[in-house]
Amino acid sequence: MELRTPEVLAWGLFAAALLAAAVLWRELRGRGATRRPVANSATLTRLPAFRAALRAHRARTAALAGAAALLAGASLLGAARPVDTTVERPQSRSRDIMLCLDVSGSMASYDAELVRTFRRLVADFEGERIGMVIFNGSAATVFPLTDDYDYINEELDGAEQALTGGSVQDAFFAGTFNGWGTSLIGDGLATCVTSFDRADTQRARSVVFATDNEVAGRPLVPLTDAGQLARAKAVRVYGLSPAPDGASRESVEMRDVVEGTGGRFYSMTDRGAIGGIVESVQAQEATVIESASRALRTDSPALPIAAASLAFVGLVVASRRWRS
């Protein structure tokens, strides 16, 4: 245990020593003047009752003195603020996960459910950094990669409100209508792949890509090229589609692209989709990143408070016994 302000204890002990010296000097100085001889007192002092009373008096005096000293010492110790110091070395997982959501008209009936799916995904992660990008004719970042899960859940709540017709709808979709058409799937995936802010390849990077893959415009980057970009950057793409696997040409193309990155294709109708994505992401090896060591100092007043309480009880008990 350390003291945050040890000088308080030092000055308190110095003051107590001065007080004790003053009391002792006054006692010695006045001892001769206050004593008076009493004849035939030896008979009284030999009585058993007198000796018992003298012993009780001395015991109560000692109890009062001890309790007062303990109370004063505990008060000084508390004023010096005892603290406990622990050294910790924070660690974080080197996994980055980008949630990539198609907000085009063909996905309107699925988007709110997809955001709820994203929230359930986030609830199963711990320590990973998570970001979110939405796209239609162009892509826009909802929130960048972060491990602040309270902030992430707030943003997902806002996204769900916007996707169900809430008042923040216009602000949420801002920046997604700047392309040549709508549902530019390849542009959206390429933006998500390039949204990772760290270039080192030791970090496990994943994209959860939710779309029906129904293109309605002229993308700058075809979906197959976006898949090649993901492979080049060692990003695994996990596809989440409202259509069952193989139910349409679009779902087949999407499955081929995501599996080409080392990821997997999931249908929203698959009850095991969320668990499968979480297990697949967590199965990727992640290097533990250790931050600089830091010392944490927390006040630890339990000992002086307990000692002061005990001393106070002793003072009360001894004082009452004295009066009796």
Description of the molecule:
This protein has helices at residues 6-34, 42-45, 48-79, 108-123, 149-163, 169-173, 185-193, 223-232, 249-260, 273-283, 302-323; strands at residues 2-3, 82-88, 91-93, 95-102, 129-135, 139-146, 181-182, 204-210, 216-217, 235-241, 265-267, 288-290, 294-299. It is α/β, with parallel strands linked by helices. The chain folds into two domains: 2-30 and 45-86 and 300-323, no CATH class; 91-289, von Willebrand factor, type A domain (Rossmann fold, 3-Layer(aba) Sandwich). The strands form four sheets. Strands 6-5-4-8-10-11 form a six-stranded mixed β-sheet, sandwiched between helices. The chain has a three-stranded antiparallel β-sheet with strand order 1-2-13. It has a two-stranded antiparallel ribbon with strand order 3-12. Strand 10, helix 9 (249-260) and strand 11 (265-267) form a beta-alpha-beta unit. Helix 1 packs antiparallel against helix 3 (48-79), helix 3 packs antiparallel against helix 11 and helix 4 (108-123) runs antiparallel to helix 5. The radius of gyration is 38 Å and the shape is rod-shaped.
User: Radius of gyration, Cα only, in angstroms?
Assistant: 38 Å
Based on the structure given, which CATH architecture of the largest domain is correct? Answer: 3-Layer(aba) Sandwich
Distance between the termini: 41 Å
Q: In CATH terms, what is the fold-level topology of the largest domain? A: Rossmann fold
How would you sum up the major sheet? Answer: 6 strands, mixed
Major sheet: arrangement of strands: 6-5-4-8-10-11
Extended strand count: 13
Number of helices: 11
Structural class: alpha/beta
